[in-house]
Amino acid sequence: MFSLADKSLYVEAIDLWIDSMRSRGRCYVSHGHSDHAREHDTIVSTPNTAAICRAKFARREARTMQPSLLAGFKTPKPPRPPSQFEEHGFNEPWVSGNHRLTLFSAGHVLGSSQILIEGEHGSFVYTGDFKLDASLTAEPPEVKPCDLVLMECTFGRPQYAFPPREEVAADMIAFARDALDAGAVPVFFAYSLGKAQEAVAILGNAEIGVTVHGAIETLCRVYETCGVQLPKYERYDVLTFNANGAVVWPPSGKALPKALRGKPVRTAVLTGWSMDRSARFRYGVDRCFPLSDHADYPALLRYIEMAQPKKVLLNHGWPDFVYRLRRLGIDAEYLEEHSQLALF
After folding, report:
1. Boundary of a domain, candidates 271, 289, 307
2. What integer pLDDT is reported at residue 67 of this predicted model?
3. What are the DSSP calls for 17-45, one per residue?
4. Domain shared by 318 and 182, yes or no
5. Which residues constitute the domain of residue 284?
6. Angle 47-64/214-225 helices, nearest 10 degrees?
7. 37: pLDDT strictly greater than 80
8. Is residue 67 in a domain?
9. Do 206 and 113 lie in a common domain?
10. Helix, strand or coil for residue 92?
11. Tens of pLDDT along 134-171?
12. DSSP assignment string, 262-327
C-alpha cells in the first residue's frame, strides 16, 4: 500500500517516504533540486545526489547563520541534526523487508535516479523528474519494465516537443558569439543545478569563456569531484570580472551582476517553457532556448512504450495528460492528494 499525503508519497510496506517536502525519518530523494531535496533524518539516494545535497545543505545552513537585524527579537531555532545518507549506486539492488529496491538513472541532472520497488504482488517505478535525451553532464537515462509507474508529466502537452539538444546547443553558441562580436556580454539564466553545468559545458567546449555565479560554482565543483569533466570557468567577482566571455547566472530575480549594470548585454533563459510563444516576454529576455532537464511530450509517450506498465500514475504536470493517454488505450490516472493504492 502506498499513499499521497501532504504532497508526499509514502510506501507503507517498507516505511519509506519518497521526495517528501517535509522532514521525515527516512526518505528517498531522487535528485538535488530544492523542490525534491529536503533534510531528513536519513536520506536514501545515489552517491552523487548525496554529494550535491551535502553541498546545498551546507550552503543553506551558512546563509541561515548570517546575522540578522531581527536576531535580538526572535528566538533562534535550534540547529537541525545533520542528515545521514544511505547511499546506493545505480543498479545495485538491496532488500528491505520482503521487497527488493533498485535505483537507476533518470538522466535529469547528475545523480538523479528513479526507484524500482519489487514485491510478491508486482513491480513499481517512481520516475521523479527525468529525461530520455543524453546530455553532457548527467548520467545516461534508463527505463525498466514495471507493472505500475508513477511518472512526472511536466511537459505533457503536444506543443512541448523540443528540438534536438545538438541544435539547441549550436543556437546557444551562435547567440553568444554574435553578442560578443557586437560588443555585448551574453548572459544565460539557468538553474544552479543541472542546466548551469550543461551551459558551462556547451559554451566552454566551444572555447567561449564562462563566468558563473557563486552558487553555480559550488555545484560545478561537486560535479568535478564526482568525475564530470567541465571546461574552464571562473567564479564571478565584481572586482576582477572580465567581460570577454559569457555569464551563466541563476534565474531568480533576473538581476544582472553588478559589474554588468549599464553595460551592453544580451540575455537568454534556458527552459523547456521556451516553446510557449509568450516565453521571451514573460521572462523579459532577448532569447529563449528550449534546453530542458525534463522529458518532452514525445519522450513521455516513449517512456511508457518502453516500460510497458499495466497502469500509469501521473504527478507534477498537466492533469489532462491522463485523457491523452486514455485515448491511446493506456490505463492512466492522475494521483490526487490522499490517494491510496495497493500493489505491495
Report:
1. 289
2. 58
3. EES-SS--SEEE---SSTTT----SEEEE
4. no
5. 165-289
6. 150
7. yes
8. no
9. no
10. coil
11. 999 999 999 999 999 999 999 999 999 999 999 999 99
12. TS-EEEEEE-GGGGSTTHHHHHT-SEEE---SS--HHHHHHHHHHH--SEEEEESS-TTHHHHHHH
CB of 109 closer than 8 Å to CB of 32: yes
Is residue 256 over pLDDT 80?
Answer: yes
CATH number at residue 211: 3.40.50.10890
The secondary structure of 160-208 as a DSSP string is --PPPHHHHHHHHHHHHHHHHHTT-EEEEE--TTTHHHHHHHHHHHTT-
Grid look-up 570580472 returns 241
Q: Are residues 151 and 171 in the same domain?
A: no
Q: What is d(CA 22, CA 8) in angstroms, rounded to the nearest whole number?
A: 8
Cell of 184: 555585448
Nearest Cα neighbor of 208 from 248, 168, 265, 164 is 248
How many structural domains comprise the chain? 2
- pTM to 2 decimal places: 0.91
> Which of 269, 289, 309 lies at the terminal end of a domain, its last residue?
289
My answer on whether 278 and 236 are in the same domain is yes
At 59 the three-state DSSP class reads helix
Instruction: Assess whether 47 and 93 both reside in one domain.
Output: yes
216 three-state secondary structure: helix
- Residue 234 CB: number of other CB atoms within 10 A? 15
Q: Residues 28, 8: contact at Cβ < 8 Å? A: no
Cell numbers given for 81: 541534526
How would you classify the pairing of strands 94-96 and 246-249?
unpaired
* Residues paired with 321 in a beta bridge: none
Does residue 305 sit within a domain? yes
